[in-house]
């Protein structure tokens, strides 16, 4: 066969199994699946498989395994690290979960949702809300990202500070293994101490160990009251002190606490329509805080006003605006959620999704900013993110008017500069975006020795022929 086509016998078998809607082979039909959201990676594939059920998926995987064809699981294709993009050999098939899109069951007693992998996170959130419940996970790409990908990358997002990452919210999984066998781990149990917790292997594995088809997700009662405020601060130190103040008063009330640099905020208000700064003047940095409660009284408002009043007195904040309606609340969150898009419109960017201990965040941001500005004069340092759980998206945007390709050619130097400082503060070079194919080269120095060797043994045991999402997580041999 040619590098860009399936063996005839496999093509026929897949066509018979999946039907016309389930097998795409034309270049025009497959092109959008072969490029990542950031346009960093452009691959090719032999076909896109779109199974409509776990059974179809398992049979398709078994056929591909039998023919030795590599497989790339793909959900909403929102990966920031090229984790769902095939290489350029044209040998691999992409297995898209978008047709496995049913919400099977919502259980009010257990506070769980049983949902197929292709349901978008936003659709799952809305389904829970219609039942008076909340799916706590919230990320900027939730309108496109699907449940399977969210779990496979152990997504975090805005509410991690209160509810944890996808790992903490995943109770059960159904996974198609690389040989086509289906692993049923669909148990709605909080306690189950019967051997190895196998479902945890697949959460955050980025599709390298198997393809998630169904999940049981932990829900929560919907908040009956929320209070949201955007605050102007002078530094990361003040933002962290403000978070500590809210946590000291009532840690259970804090739903989200986000940090935004002045540079990143300026890109949003300049490049995104309908995003204007709702404060009297720009500030060096900002904090977006949201409190939530299942109570319907006004105690949250009192808490918010009390903490902010004290913060004014202690000069932790210089200005603040409180949302007076749901529309205003959504406007404040829109400002935060558009940071990634604004940076994309500003030109090429190098994204560092890092985490450090909370106490180290101010020193990290200060030192990393200084080092990057010295490395590339004119670089726009635009960090933002989930300061409440220690996760900062330390993003660097090309100098204004500069050459995009020349800037991107220095991506490893930039990432290594930031990573060196992250290591100094005992952090991680990937907090929630994963490794994908962008950061595989960092794995030996960060996770080498027994840790990486153990990962490789697990991979070899479940996928001895390296057919499931090859080229991701592990460095090239």
UniProtKB/TrEMBL annotation:
InterPro entries: FAD-bd_oxidored_4_C, FAD-bd_PCMH, FAD-bd_PCMH-like_sf, FAD-bd_PCMH_sub1, FAD-bd_PCMH_sub2, FAD-linked_Oxase-like_C, FAD-oxidored/transferase_4, Oxid_FAD_bind_N. It comes from the Bacteria. The keyword Heme does not apply. Residues 41-222 form the FAD-binding PCMH-type domain. Keywords: FAD, Flavoprotein. Transmembrane segments: none annotated. This is FAD-binding oxidoreductase. It comes from Acetobacter thailandicus. Pfam families: FAD-oxidase_C, FAD_binding_4. Belongs to the FAD-binding oxidoreductase/transferase type 4 family. The keyword Membrane does not apply.
């Amino acid at each position: 066969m040619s590098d860009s086509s399936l063996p005839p016998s496999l093509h026929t078998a897949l066509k018979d199994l999946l039907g016309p809607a389930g097998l795409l082979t034309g270049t025009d039909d497959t092109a959008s699946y072969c490029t990542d959201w950031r346009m960093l990676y452009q691959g090719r594939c032999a076909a896109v498989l779109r199974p409509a059920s776990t059974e179809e998926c398992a049979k398709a995987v078994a056929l591909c395994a039998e023919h030795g064809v590599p497989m790339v699981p793909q959900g909403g294709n929102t990966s920031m690290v090229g984790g769902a993009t095939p290489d350029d050999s044209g040998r691999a098939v992409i297995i898209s979960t978008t047709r496995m899109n049913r919400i099977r069951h919502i259980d009010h007693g257990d506070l769980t949702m049983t949902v197929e992998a292709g349901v978008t996170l936003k659709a799952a959130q809305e389904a829970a809300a219609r039942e008076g419940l909340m799916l706590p996970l919230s990320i900027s790409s939730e309108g496109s990202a699907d449940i399977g990908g969210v779990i496979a990358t152990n997504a975090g997002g805005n509410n991690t500070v209160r509810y944890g990452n996808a790992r903490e919210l995943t109770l059960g999984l159904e996974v198609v293994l690389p040989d086509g066998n289906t692993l049923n781990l669909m148990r709605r149990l909080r306690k189950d101490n019967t051997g190895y917790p196998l479902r945890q292997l697949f959460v955050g594995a980025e599709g390298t160990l198997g393809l998630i088809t169904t999940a049981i997700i932990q829900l929560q009662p919907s908040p009956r009251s929320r209070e949201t405020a955007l605050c102007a601060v002078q530094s990361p130190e003040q933002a962290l002190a403000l978070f500590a103040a809210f946590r000291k008063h009532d840690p259970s009330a804090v739903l989200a606490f986000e940090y935004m640099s002045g540079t990143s905020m300026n890109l949003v208000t300049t490049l995104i329509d309908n995003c204007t700064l709702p404060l009297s003047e720009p500030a060096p940095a900002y904090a977006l805080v949201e409190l939530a409660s299942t109570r319907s009284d006004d105690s949250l408002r009192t808490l918010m006003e009390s903490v902010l009043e004290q913060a004014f007195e202690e000069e932790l904040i210089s200005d603040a605006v409180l949302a007076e309606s749901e529309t205003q609340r959504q406007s404040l969150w829109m400002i935060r959620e558009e940071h990634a898009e604004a940076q994309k419109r500003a030109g090429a960017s190098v994204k560092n999704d890092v985490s450090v201990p909370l106490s180290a965040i101010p020193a990290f941001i200060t030192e990393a900013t200084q080092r990057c500005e010295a490395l590339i004069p004119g670089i726009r340092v635009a960090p933002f993110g989930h300061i409440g759980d220690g996760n900062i998206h330390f993003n660097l945007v090309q100098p204004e008017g500069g050459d995009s390709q020349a800037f991107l050619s220095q991506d490893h130097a930039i990432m290594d500069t930031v990573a060196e400082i992250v290591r100094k503060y005992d952090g991680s070079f990937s907090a929630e975006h994963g490794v994908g194919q962008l950061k595989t080269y960092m794995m030996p120095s960060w996770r080498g020795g027994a840790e990486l060797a153990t990962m490789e043994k697990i991979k070899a045991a479940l996928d001895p022929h390296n057919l499931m999402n090859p080229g991701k997580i592990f460095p090239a041999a």
